[in-house]
Structures are given as C-alpha cells and as structure tokens.
Amino acid sequence: QEKIKEVADVVQRDFFGDNYWTLIERVSKYYYTPLIKVVRTALPPGLVGRSQHRLRLKRENIPNGAEEFLASTAARQILKMLESQANGDYSFKYLKPKVKGFRWGKEQLLKRDWVESYVELPSSPRPKMKPAVTLIDDGFYIDLNKRQREILKVLRDRGGEFWLSEFIQICKTSISTLKTLEQKGCIVIDEREVLRTESGPVVVGDQAKSLTQAQSQALATINQLNGYAQVLLHGVTGSGKTEVYLQAIAPLLNQNKSALVLVPEIGLTPQLTDRFRARFGNKVSVYHSALNDGERYDTWRQMLTGEPQVVIGTRSAVFAPLPNLGLIILDEEHDSSFKQDSPIPTYHARTVAQWRAELENCPLILGSATPSLESWLSVREGRGGQGGLRDQGGQGGLRDQGGQGGQGGQESIFSPLSPPSPLSPPSPLSPPPLRHYLPLPERIYSRPLPPVEVVDMRQELQQGNRSIFSKSLQSALLQLQERRQQGILFIHRRGHSTFVSCRSCGYVLECPHCDVSLAYHHTEEGAPQLLRCHYCNFARSHPQNCPECSSPYLKFFGSGTQRVAQELTRQFPELRFIRFDSDTTRNKGAHRTLLTKFANGEAELLVGTQMLTKGLDLPQVTLVGVVAADGLLNLSDYRASERAFQTLTQVAGRAGRGDDPGKAIIQTYTPEHPVIEAVQRHDYESFIHSELEQRQALNYPPYGRLILLRLSSLDAISVQNAAQIIATTLNSKEGFEILGPAPASILRVANRYRWQILIKFAPDALPQLPDWEEVRRRIAACRETSLCPSSVSLTIDVDPLHM
Ligand code: ADP
Ligand code: ZN
Ligand code: ZN
To answer: What's the EC number here (predicted)?
Structure first.
C-alpha cells in the first residue's frame, strides 16, 4: 500500500504554498483518492516515482522442456510470456491481467528458482545540461596569439556566450584551444541548462483588437473583479471570446501575475495557442500530456519561478504550480474532456479550477457557446445550492457554505474566508457579486449564425436516394468548388458505429477480449487493412473469409470517417478532402499540419469526428454537414441530450465565421427530436430550461449528485457478487438512493467483467463531506468480507460524466 510518507520524502511540504497543498488535500478527499496519487497527477511524470514489480526469467536454471514439469497452466503461461520478451522480463502490472491464477503460477516458478521477482526503481527527470563558453576577459592585455584573439572577438561580437559545440564549429577551433583560453582566464567553460519547452512555430505579432460593445462590457466587468469570482462568458460561436481572454490577461502580466488557460485538447487548438503567442510571445507556455517527460519537467519548473506567464494546458494543467496566479480561464468549459474517468482521481478540471480560484482568490472565467447545465444553473440562476442566493443577499463572504453546487464546483469548504479586498465593495452592505453572467450574443461584425437546415433522411429514402448524402448536402458539396469555398463534414463515431459482418450468416467480427464489435480502419494507402477494438486497442488484419461460415462476402457497416471518405471519392471524384480524425492525427503535430493544409486551400472539405467541434476558427468554411445526427441522440445516458445539443451547435458554429455567410445541414432520421429543433433555432435558453426541468424532476445533476462505483474483475461471478453485496450494504443508509448494481453498458472490456452501482444523492440530503465518509467506510467494510475479494477492483467516480 502506498503511504503518504513517500510524498514527504520527495517533495517537501513547503515546496509549494499552503494553498497548493490545501488544493491537493481537497482533491484527495473529495475524489476518494490517496494523496500520493493526487500528487502524481499534479506533478510532472516521474518526479514522484512509481516503483515497478517485475518478474524475470532465470534462463540458465530452466531445463529443456521445462513446461512439461509444470502442473499449472498459469505457470506455463507466465513462462511463455516471459520467454517472448527479449530481456525475459515483464511488469506484474501487465502480466497479471493476462494470466488467470497468476499468483499460484508465479509461486511455482519462484519455488523452482526459474524466475526472480525484483523491484525496479524509477529514474526521476533531471534538467538537461550542456557545456557552454562564456567570455570573461577579451584578453587584449594578456599575451595572446592572433588566432586566440580572433576567437575571443567572435565570442564577444556574438554576445559573450555560446554553446560549446556550436562555438567550436563556428570558429573551426578545438576544445584544447578553448581549454587554453580558459586557463588564461579569458573564458569559462561550464555546464548550463538547456530548457526543453515546446516553443511552437514562429508567429507574427499581433495587437489588441478594438472590442465590440459586448466584448468591452464583458472585459470591463472582468477588469473590475478583485479576488475570487466566477464568470460565465456565454458567447455564441465566433463572438470573440478569445479576444476577451487575451485582453483580460494583458494587464495581469504587468502586475507580475500569471494566468492559467485550460482547454479541452491542445492538439486540436494550435490556433488558440498561436493567438496567445502572437500577443504575449515567449511568456506563453503549453503544458499537456503530449509533451515528453523532459519538456513537462522543464515547463513545470519554469512555472515555479514565479515569472509572470501564461500557461495554456489541458485538464491536468489545473495543477500548474504558478505561485502568483491572477486568473484562471476554462475555454469550452462544457467539454467533457475536462473530466478524467480513469485512473483516479476522477477529477473534473472545472471543479478543481473553482477550488483553486477560491484558494488563490482570483477570478475564474468559464467560456462557452453552450455552457454546461452546471455552470448555467450556478451563475445564471444563482442555484448551485442555497449559496448563490446568499451571495446576492449581501453575505458574499459566505460563499455557499454547505451548498451543493453543480458538479461539486460551487461547494466551498474553505475557511477562513478571504478578507474583502479594499477596492471592491463601495459599501459594506453590498459586496460584489461572486457570480457574473457575461453574454456575447452576436458574432463579430454582426455576422449571422449559420441557418441550420434539417434533412429528414426517411424522406430521402422514400424518394429513392440511397446515398449517405441527402440531395441538399450533395448540391452544397458540389457548390463548394464552384464558389471556392470550404466545408466541414462531421461524422459521429463511437463504439458500434462501424463494424464488419458476414452477408451470408450475419456473423459480426468481435474483439476477443471485449463485448464489442471491431471497428474497420483504413490505414495508409497500400498498408494492410485493420480491424481494431476501440476499448482495448486489440487489432487484427481484415479476414478474407467469414471466420464462421467461410463465406467471402463480408460487408462494412456504419458511417465511420473511412466509409464517408470512400463515398465522397465515389460520388465527388473532383472534391479534395482531408480526413481529420484519430487515425490521421496520431502523430505529434499532425493536427497542425492538416489544418494548415486546409487553411492554405489544399482541400475543399475537412472530414472528421468529434475533434472538429472544438474551437476551430476557419474563416473560409461556409458549409457544415452532419452526416447522421442520430448516433448522438440515441445514447443511453442522461446527459445524451445535453451533449448532442452542444456538439451539434459547436459543429454548426464552424460555418460562416468569415466574410461569406455560412450554412449547416443536419441529416437525421428523427427531425422532430427536441434537440434538433433547438439546434435549428439556435435556441440555447429554451433547450436548457426544458433540460433542467427534466433533470430536476429526476434528481439528476446539476440538482442531485452522483457517485458511480465501478467494479471489475477477470471473474464474471465474483464481480457480480461483490457488486450485489456492496449495493445491499449501502442501501440501508438514508439520504441517498442506490441504482443497480447493473452490468456496465459493455460488460467485458479487456477480459474484465464490469459492473456498476450508482449512488444518487437528493439535493436536500446533500452530503457534507462527513456523510461521504460514511459511504467510504461502508465500502471499506464490504471489502473485508470474503464476498468482495481483492481480485475485484473498485473505483469510486465522483460526479461521473460517462457511464
Ligand atoms: P469564439 O472563441 O467566440 O468562437 P473567436 O475568439 O475565435 O470567437 O473570434 C472569432 C473571430 O473574430 C476571430 O477570427 C477573431 O480574430 C475575430 N475577432 C474577435 N474579436 C474581434 C474584434 N473585436 N474585432 C475584429 N475581429 C475580432
Ligand atoms: Zn458467415
Ligand atoms: Zn477489445
């Protein structure tokens, strides 16, 4: 078991400020996660080491035909797997899930001394050092020959310092000559740190734009904030939210403060990063998981310096150790990638950002065209518990104590309360409100939002159109080339949407480890076609014949990007398109490359999945097509409507952001669906009101609160029993409702059977933390019974988003 002591050994407690530790402790408590794991999440990888237990083959001890001696299949299996590794060794962590009866098998092998088990200690990241030369004395008074003087002159003329290796090249000199100069006291050769930070491409500098009226109103409110406040910047797509962020940050840097900008996925928003760099130059750094360990470590240390800076990062950057934080921004705050589903802590960056802003006493800006129900309720209706009303009631300092908050965000447990700042309240009776709703209802230059045409695909079929493109979308696609405009084609792809089945017997190719069908992937031209499992990443080549009945007639189903791409090539051979999805953007920098190609007009159409919805600002795009909205609408999840509305609105919002007006075409088999109608009318408010009503009626978030217990095991029976016993134990407790236990929507993933239990808290019975402790205690008690063995793993997902 991991101990807190481990943390203290590596990172001293006062290494960070008190606030930072309060935050870490809060996350640990709220998300039921050992402190060490929160610290690991917060710090760059490798800094707090994770030792690994490994098993290694002792080849010299193993007789020929060893397998025959072994009684257990597990032992044989372990032996085989170790042998398949070049160095004959394997981490327990990876070996164990693959071998049933691992422990027993391992013991047999250890007893015979055929394997050894050892612990591998991690190596922590270090600064990268490189030798450099520095000029001390240009040596004109010292006895030097001409050549040496020349070298010193070069060094002086170039600023007095240089990396050693490069300097040797430039001067065509040698290390021994330089050593001589060092002995004479003219230069110093020493090791200097090379910062490994992602610098990004060179961008042209940029000036602050003169703001629209709505933008300046929003900015004025933000500028007046002094200390903690929560701001919802609700700006329709293309309304200029980013410009507001930029201008809100600028004055902070002059006050020696730093800003933290959180975005859903950084690879998808190279444009956003560029815009920040154009404004703030090298004060901008990025922090996300695609950086290598060295880059993360160095960027992280740069933050600790306290130099005023702007950090743009994904989810985990909410823990950026900026000591002088002046503002936190969550852009696209509705996006579900701010939530971590696994591993623990299953935190939501918005919730943590909220706590952090309160602790650091700085404003938090939540920006979106389609705010989450949580943020809307808390800021707009002052609900998030009783607290919001109290703010307005003149006790601003109290800040929702005991409030329930949407996603947990509005609940404040911090004391002492931060003192009122000297500048803010004009009178002690009216402290500044802590929640602000700042709308940007129009696009820049009053450009219209794109009209949304909804196409009923049932009618298309009736009229004999069997293509995946409606007549309307077809003609719009044809016009793109004529008019030299660009378009985006959005495909919803998740889970079962693409699969291969046999036309003769109906057999569907499935993953051997998960209860899902394999998705068809088209790799690069000429490469073998692959079938892949989206859950465990299992891949196999595409079979020639049906594995069941040997029929050669295999058929692809669904509209993956792949399929759509084939259809496009067939129907519109002239149309140039770029695929933009997880297949084509796997390599580092691929997003940027593809988007640059598109922006340069090398294609008329960008075809892709979810990633198209995230903040792209492509002014030539006039057409957005949604191939089939139905996959989004029909998800068995209480958040399906909210997510569908957000996705469709966001993707439609990519159209018409430039001078030419845009248009969106949504194809669906259920045009009468309320989400579709709301998207068509651009009617966020009425959508959100009816959605809130439904959530309230059923006690779902943001009213009630949820905790999801996820159980899994290699053994189908024991996990089901364990789930049952936990559910029964919990059921006797008042104040919450137990839903389940139920099998997860996909029962088996990577050979593990998964069950879940949902705990639903009523808003009024809302748990203070001590009550949650009770839940935890009961779960812990269950674990001690033999019915819930340790082979059943259990994670507690607080405020779950994906079920
Ligand atoms: P949003 O983030 O709200 O979707 P953006 O910040 O991307 O919108 O702004 C849309 C476009 O309008 C961008 O190209 C941006 O440069 C431009 N823009 C923003 N504010 C202004 C302004 N005040 N004047 C002129 N152009 C602006
Ligand atoms: Zn078949
Ligand atoms: Zn699988």
So the answer is: 5.6.2.4
